[in-house]
Amino acid sequence: MDWSMPLPTLSIDTATEVLALALGEGDRILAKSSIDAGRSHLELLLPGVQSLLEGAGFTVRDIDAIVAGTGPGTFSGLRVGIATARALAQSLEIRLSGFSTLEALALGLAGVSPAELVLPIIDAKRSQVFARLYKKEGKNTVRAESDVLCLDPRELLEELAKITGGKVGAAGNGVLAYRDIFVSAGQLEPLEPDHPGNRVDACWHLRADRAEASAVYNPGRLLSVVPQYVREPDADKTILLRKKEPWLQ
Amino acid sequence: MILGIETSCDDTCAAILDGDVLLANIVSSQTEFHARYGGVVPEVASRHHLELINPVIAEALAAAGASMKQVARVAVTTRPGLIGALLVGVATAKSIAYAGKIELTAVSHLEGHIAANYLPPDPIEPPFICLIASGGHTSIVFVRERGALELLGQTLDDAAGEALDKGARLLGLGYPGGAELDALAAGGNTGYADFPIGLDKAGSFDFSFSGVKTALYYYLRNMDGPEVKRRRADIAASYQSAVVSALIKKTLAAAASRNASAICLSGGVSANSELRRRLTTECQGAGIHLRVPPPELCTDNAAMVASAARYLPSIPFPEYLSLGARASGGFAA
Ligand SMILES: [Zn+2]
């Protein structure tokens, strides 16, 4: 077997309201798509995968590896994406790996922002955002300069000011959600609202993942691909078993 | 072979059914994770489902001595239940069907509980009345034939198992306390205290268990500590008897109203010894056949989901790719 042979790889990212999909082979991106899913990740993900593959003349059985975005982002969205990726990998016995959604946004931002530091920001709902500061390195590489943060937008700006006084490029749906706050602070240089860099692009998962492309299927590794929740589960929603009988209306 | 998957509440389940033969039935209970919260936390349940689903499926295949390639159909619970929990199972099931180019069947959790009765040992065929009682549901269903169901009644507030668990908690037992309450009640006098039976009127098969729980609360509040301690078994027996009496009365009345000569139990509460003992006697007296599946098929499991898929239609490719999950909803697709 020739291990340098390019393997068709599918990447999916469901951390935000955008379903980001891409199909690659070696250095080439064969197809990509971006679907506005709202909260319907479960309903739209596999039809999106099927039409992406069909458009490129592939079937799901032609895929040799999967990369799943691990967030952080919407918990349900992440679980749909990762459960789907894992079950496909388990059934097809193909390699699975995870890739940070924040890093994917950072890689996209590094190519378009003049600033040396970039800050991808993902809406975490409940008045918070997920963010991580990255520094540009070589081509298609960034280095993390902070932990993954989960903060109120104003707290994020305070935290950022402690780390650096310089200008920082920013993008992501978290910027769009709190744009006024982020722009008025002056330190951030957000992409324009309609700039595609605000959306997750699954191609970055493929480009950054190439080093691992020759790894083989390993059932134990399925479980190493987990959502980055960052936030603890909310226990106030405890229901003493199921509160009511909501079914059968 | 049918691969069944069930993740509607706090158990992660997978099963392999080959014709009539149940080759594997794996349940990974999360009870210990939820015990410290005193109930099920939906987000905690969803996280655990994602951790457990792939190993549980792998274990089911291994226990069945089968490979994924031998699976001809996937069956999954799509409703009702905790939405975040359901979607882990549905996303997994759809992907397995898609990867294997096989059929998929969407099953209602309650249809699954009923279909547990079609599994060996001693499978039974309709018509029958099915009482589904657990921590999550309390329903009486008339099953005319496989898949042809008539919902006769259900709880309007707490589920029967929930009422038993809450009573156990008021009596200072752990979570989930239904089984402990049952054990404590075994040494007690059911006639010691008088607790109300909810919606105790002819012609209605609906239940209400919030009243009996409140009655127990005030009963205990008005009693002094040492007396409660001394009479705990008697109070437990009286309380449990009130909950169980409601189940028995309405189930028997439902059987009479539909001329059904068989009653089936499903759901975790069917393990309750008082319910089993009294219903056995009552059914014998009335000439009704009583069927209780083994405990592992009464509580939530995926074998029942696979069983339902044997008579429910499958969804063709590519329609099932867009299948969703629903928190509420009944038997119908
Ligand atoms: Zn159940």
Write up what this structure looks like.
The complex is a heterodimer of chains A (249) and B (333). Chain A has 249 residues and is α/β, with parallel strands linked by helices. Chain A folds into two domains: 9-100 and 200-244, ATPase, nucleotide binding domain (Nucleotidyltransferase, domain 5, 2-Layer Sandwich); 102-198, ATPase, nucleotide binding domain (Nucleotidyltransferase, domain 5, 2-Layer Sandwich), CATH 3.30.420. Chain A is 31% helix and 25% strand. Chain B has two domains: 2-115 and 298-322, ATPase, nucleotide binding domain (Nucleotidyltransferase, domain 5), CATH 3.30.420.40; 126-293, Nucleotidyltransferase, domain 5. In chain B, strands 3-2-1-4-5 form a five-stranded mixed sheet, with helices on both faces. Chain B has a five-stranded mixed sheet with strand order 8-7-6-9-10, sandwiched between helices. Classes of the chains: A alpha/beta (249), B alpha/beta (333). Chains A and B meet through helix 1 and helix 2 of A and helix 2, helix 3 and helix 5 of B. Zinc ion is lined by residues 109, 113, 134, 136-137, 267, 300 of chain B.
